[in-house]
Every structure is written in structure tokens, then in C-alpha cells.
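To whoever picks this up:

The nightly regression suite flagged RNI-like protein as changed. Nothing in the input moved, so I suspect the structure step. Input below, exactly as stored in the fixture:
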Amino acid sequence: MVDNKPLSWLELIPSELQKEIFTCFKGRLVDLCAASLASKRWNAIVTPFIWYAPTFSSLHALELFRVQIQKNEKVGKYVKKLSIIDKYFESAEEILEMLGYLPELESIKLPYTSPSYSTEHWLTSVVRGLPKLRCISYLDTRSVTSDSLPEIIQVLKSTKSLAEIRLIWPDKMISTQPTDEYHTQLGSFTNLASLHLNLATVDSNFFANLIPYLPNLECFKLKTYQVPNNVLSLMSTHCLHLESLRFHTASLKANQLLEELVEHHLFKLNSLILNFDEVTVISRKVFEELLASYGVKLKRLTLCNLLVEVEDVDILSKYLTSELAELEIRNGDVPNLLRADHAAWQRLFSKCGSSLTSLTLDGGIFNNPKFSELIGTFCPKLRKLSLLDNQADDSTLMPLLRNIGNTLNELNIGQNRITSAMFVILAEYCHNLRSIHIQYPEDSKINASFLKSYLESCGSRLTDLNLAGWEVDDRVLELLQQYAPNLHTVYLPNTLTLKSLDSFRSNTKYLNHLEVWDLPYEAIFDHQISSWIYDRKFAIWEYSLLEHTSWYMV
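Regenerated output under the current build:
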């Protein structure tokens, strides 16, 4: 077992390097991550992150990490997942040596290859000593060519336990030519069940040389600007076990993609996620054909930025069945897009609501107060409910929560017309919530007594809380510490002092993810925040420049 006292390679960083490290905060920073090895309570889910910064090489951190696991080999046996964030390594041998001490490693995220290694040599060296590897993420393949790709795939295929591969080729066109030699080398990924690809652009030849060798693929996720027109035809022929399909792509040819889904039927598909980059007007005829082809078997349906109106809801109610467990319709960029026609939605929920466990809707659907009654009446098994960018207020949601509040484990009602009175409603009707996200309310002033009324009765069950957008003060943090001792994940606004945040961070026993939203950029250079990375209470401290400029600890 790992000692109760957490080990930390941060302590081994020479004092002369510390100034250099903090100088990096002000540099061109993509990701800055530091980690200690975990304490006893983290024994099975340790995730060491490695420093990346322009003037501080990851190799320093890797060396320190390697020294520690050499001193205590038991530590390495608890590491299941390793992420290495850097650019190029002048010497990759240190990484390979370190992997020898991680026999239980199941997931690895690799950086760019060393200039001294070809990509196929690099991957071969990595996977050779990891018998339990199930997931490999390779962040970039700048050295990959049409000639080397078959060898790389052959290397990955040789890892018998591998069940998931994620490959990312940003800003690069991949082109491979089908040849007999290529087919011979490629073999077959007989064990591969899940494949995630993030490709800026890709041509049809790439998939022509890959998909035929994925006979047992069950889950496929593709994020790319344009899905090549041969992907679905190949899958319908070669991936007969495919159950889950996710496309995140441009809206330019949305109708064509739906037509291809209909034409090339995937017989076992029960999970379909379509996410377009902007709101897309689709042909109602094509939409109906799509639902006619797949609706009867769907257990999960997600439609993001597909124009869904009353007529489309009728199509959903016509073809979806009680098999459906998760429904997500998101069109938040278009206000009032989902016109809440009572009869249309009643037809849908009366048919599918009894089996729904997760429901996510946005786009102004709650401009009809009676709509919440439909969910409360017809969706008795909901465990997760997300209502985003709607017109809901406290009184609109009350009849819904009165009916199903006690079945809910997760509630997200962000960016609605909510006030502090919602906490009183939750205290009365929602006693089993583990996760509450109530962010960016209409009235941002939080009433501490209302919040206390909820926390006193139900706070001990909470593990995840998001209060971004509220005017939270020190009194609120005191209530959380007193009545919600089991919080693991907390999202807070920027209205708190660093002193109060530091106290909350230190005194919340199980906290392992603290995120502050809308933090002023200059605050990330504050010495108080910088010093937190040396707090050995946390297994991982990670800082990233996100879209909303925040820092967070994991």
C-alpha cells in the first residue's frame, strides 16, 4: 500500500529551478501541470501529470518521478493512467525506462515523438512493456507518412489487450494509398471495440484502409471538418457490431450525412450523437427517414444544433420507443427554438418518458409553464435532468420537481430565470441529489438562509456543486464546509477572496476538483494561487487557460 503520507516529486525540485518554474506562468503557456503521487485514498486512480512550459522541460519532472518509483516500486503498481504533456523529447529513453516501473498501466497519453525515434519505433517501444494497456492516446503524428501508417497500425494491433485508440492529427491531410502490401501488413484489430479520432481534415482513402480491419468495433467517434462519404458505407459492410456512433462535424453537409446514415443502415446502432458546429436547417423528409431507420432501437439520441421544431417533435414521437433512455436536444444559440407545443411533447413523453433516465433540453422550451408538468407526469425514472438556456423560473419548475424531485441524482438548470428560492424548493422535493449545477441565475444574490435550508437536510449527499455566476461570500463557504462535507467537485464564481478560497480548499476533506470561473487573468499570477501547487493534500494540481480564463485543481 502507498504510505499515508503522500509522496511528492515536487519536493525534489531544486530551489534554483523554482524561480524558473514560476517564471513560466508568465510565458506562452498551453498547459501547466504538476502532480504528486497520491495518498492512500487515491490508490487505484493515480494520474500523474507532467510539467509542460516553454522554459521547463518535462524531462526534469520525468526524471524526478522516475527516481521516486525506483525508490518505492510499490508506488508504480498503483498507477493506472499516465498523461505526458510536452512537445518533443530529445531523449525518449527516460520515458521508456519509467514505463518499466508501471506494470499495471491501462491508459497512456503520449506526446510528440522524439526526433531520434520514428513514430512506429516509438510506439513499438512504448507498448511492448505494457501488457495491460487498454487505451492509448497519441496527440500528434507529424512524422506519420502514407508509408509508415500501416506499420503504426500493425504495432497497435499487436497489443492484444487494447480496446480503445484515440489518434489526433491536427491541421494535416492524411492520405494513404490502398495496396496489397498495405492490406497484408494491416491485419485485423480483432479486439478493438472503441475508436476515437480527432482529425482536422481526412480523405476517403484513410478510412478505406482502416475500417475493413475493425470487425468488432462497437463504438466510433469522429470529430472532423467533413466526414468522408465512404465512412458509413464501409461501416455498414465491415462493422456489423457497431452500437454507438458519434459525429462532431461542420454543418455544411448535414443533410448529406443524414442521407448516408439512412442509405447505409447500421443494424445494431442504439446510440446516435450528431453534433454540428452551428445551427443547421435539415430536410424534414431526411430527418423522418433517419428516425424511421433507427428510432425503434435507439437507447440514446443526441441532436446538437439540428433545427428541431414542433413538426420534428412529432417525428420523434412517431418513431422513438420505450427503449430510449437518454435524450438530448441542444440548440442554445437560437432562443426559443424549441417551441413548447404541449400536444406534440405530450405525444413524445407519453410514449418514451417511462424509460427515460437522462433528459437534456435547451433553446427556450420552458416558455410554456405547462411543459414541466409533462416531464413530471410522464418521466418518473429520470435520474439526470438538464435544462439549459431556457425560460424556466422557480414557479415553473416547482410542479416538475414536486413529481420527480426525489428520483433525481443530477440536476442542471443553468442560465434560467432562477433565484435563491430554488434552494427552498430543492429542500422540499429533492432529497437524493448528488450533483447540482445552478449557474448564472437571473438574480445573482444568493440568500444564505435559503441555501442553508437545503444543505441542512440534504447537504451530506452532495458530491458535485456548481455555483458559478452567483455572488458567493465567505458565509456560503462556511455553510458548505459545515453541511456538505462530502463534496468532491466544486465550481465557484470570482466573488471570493483568495484567502477564503484557500481556507475552503484546505478544510474540505474530500475535495479533489476546485474550479473558479471568470477569474481575472492577472489573478492567476497571484502568489497565493501559485503556492497551492505545493499543497500535498491534492493528488493533482492542474492549470489551463480555458475559454473563460479559469484555473482548476483536479
